[in-house]
Amino acid sequence: MTDSPKHKASSPVSRRRVVIGGSTTAAAAGLGLAGLASAATTDSTTADASATTSATATATSSTGVCSLTSEVTEGPYSLAGALVRRDIREGKEGVEVKYTFCVVDEANGCAPLADALVELWHCDALGEYSGFVDLVVAEQETGLVRVLLGNGDGTFTTGTTAAVPTPHGVVVADFNGDGSPDVATASVGSGGVSVLLGDGTGGLATAVGYAGAGRLYSIAAGDFNGDGTLDLAAVSNGSDTLDVLLGNGDGTFGAATAYPTPALPVAVSAADLDGDGNADILVSSLNGNSVTLFQGAAGGTVSQLTELTATGAYDAAATDLNGDGTKDIAVANSSANRVDIFTASAG
Ligand SMILES: [Ca+2]
Ligand SMILES: [Ca+2]
Ligand SMILES: [Ca+2]
Ligand SMILES: [Ca+2]
Fold it and tell me: Which UniProt keywords apply (predicted)?
């Protein structure tokens, strides 16, 4: 969680903003928000002020404020050694969110409870709880993907495996929109792209294969055509191509469309570089000494925007590094053992 200004005592607290009400002094809320950016809890003084405001509103409006969440789900969901956390973003993008809580005693006329403990936990749009990071590993030699579930303390289970042909690249995203993370792998052999739907408990369904170029090295997911469903992009340094597979939204994908890239592409990533809502594609080409930017578009055809000169480009990622609202690009320069930054100019 991040620091935030104290709420003003006069801040109105409507019932719509009161998400917890119960007869216990400890309440918990599950937040299913994508990339929760921040959450602010009030201190006891502020809580008193908010609660008073809320109780007044209740008395003068209607009954039923306490029935919002009369059932309280108990944890424990806290992380060992991390009961108080100040930043739960874990590097994910999202919207800034501020919560104001009023904890009231349902059995006592919804009287506000001071010094209440409110425990928060949350997950992202994929259903992944912060702090409980799982791992998916592509095991090329054995032809497996392995799912290692996090224990929340930095350790992981041994995990389960599923068969896929010579995986080199792997990406995790919810391809069928059921809230459970799915997995896609890129084959460094001739196995193309494999998609394995997740069951939400760490299990993966049998892989479904899609033909692609040989020697696929890296794979990324993004909604390149902006239709609300995730698509896949993979790069082949066997044929120097970018394969794009448009998603159908149910976990299946259309046939790959190949686009030429500079020599020896080794990494691909996705980000909406121009902010038009369509994910765009960054291809790092080792022998091309460049990062090529492909622009996603509604029709599903991606087009090359520009090619950045980037010596020894081995990977590239886009995010707003200087906080000006435009995405910048960081490139792993394997020739000079450094990270090169390309700062985007606004407008
Ligand atoms: Ca899914
Ligand atoms: Ca799409
Ligand atoms: Ca875009
Ligand atoms: Ca920027």
Answer: Signal
